[in-house]
Design brief:
By secondary structure, this protein is of the alpha/beta class. Helices cover 30% and strands 24% of the residues. The chain folds into two domains: 259 residues, Zn peptidases (Aminopeptidase, 3-Layer(aba) Sandwich); 109 residues, Alpha-Beta Plaits (2-Layer Sandwich), CATH 3.30.70.360. It is globular. The structure holds zinc ion.
Length: 376
Amino acid sequence: MTQLTGTELTRSLIAFDTISPPGNEADCARHIAGLLEPAGFRITWHDWQPGRPNLIATLPATETATRDAIVYSGHLDTVPLGRAEWGFDPFAGQISDGRLYGRGSSDMKSGVAACIMAGLALAREPVRQAEVRLIFSAAEETGCEGALGLAGRPDLLGSCAALIVAEPTDNRPFVGHKGALWLSLVHRGVTAHGSMPEKGRNAILAACASIETLRGFDFGVTAHPVMGGPSLNVGTMSAGMNVNSVPDLARVGVDIRSTVGQSNAGIRDALAAALDDGVEIATLTDMDHVYTDPDDPWMKRVFATVAEVTGTAPEIETATYFTDASVLKPAMGDPATLIMGPGAMAMAHQTDEYCETALMDPCIEVFTRLGRAHIL
Ligand SMILES: [Zn+2]
């Protein structure tokens, strides 16, 4: 049998169409379980939805565990192909000029493959003083839904000392990411004929007042030295049936990215206090920020390991996107958390998505060394 490589494993994962919706992660997850189980992993399934399982693979400690587990994590679903025509078959895993093409190649089947390869290497260690756990979620791309399902099952999820989420970072070690709070502000008015607006109450004008409040909104926090300050974007507005009626409904969609020192619940309360009383606030997405102090001993080890493997001392940075870590970190006892993977950040969700195959082995090496240092 030829030696399994990270790139070949990634190709085998790309061959499964896990575009979400509908996701259909089950076959891909079973393929992964089939690799891990013979190596000594215990497989646990959590059915988030029919055909959409979360997979938890646990490699037990060989003796009494002296410390809590190390966890590697990724999601198996991908985003749709988009409207533009692809130059490469999105499921064939074609390699050209050192680039492996396919939907999910960067986000994040290469990262999932790196987790599996590291897990298989750790399974060959004769002595392990801590558990190694691999968690592969369904339905991340639609708002970490699979991970949210798992968060309600602490019996399956367990706790851990260190968490690695292998989202695309071009192998840069990110110490966290901002949170996301997506709100829909609902304004209700009273409709009337457009020739007699004084008989109605205009929901669009109420929405405009809200937008003016949002434009000047002060979050009351100073910018974090690594993550920066919070941001607020008015992303959508929908209102009005026809030009000659007073609109009685106006919705404004707001995307807030929160930073260290903020809680999403606190932001929502502050906005509710600043907006007019009649404005209803519906939460669409609520993901807390993730941050581990770069001086945390495990994070220091991460930076030293990346420097050893790549030959370059990494910068201290955070990701621009949010990940399952928003859900898993608090649910697993607030472990030190690294976001790092071989996928290209710029390629996530793109037409002709690819990952650089040269980044696979260094990522697997970093993951394996971190695992070894943790379990030995
Ligand atoms: Zn992703």
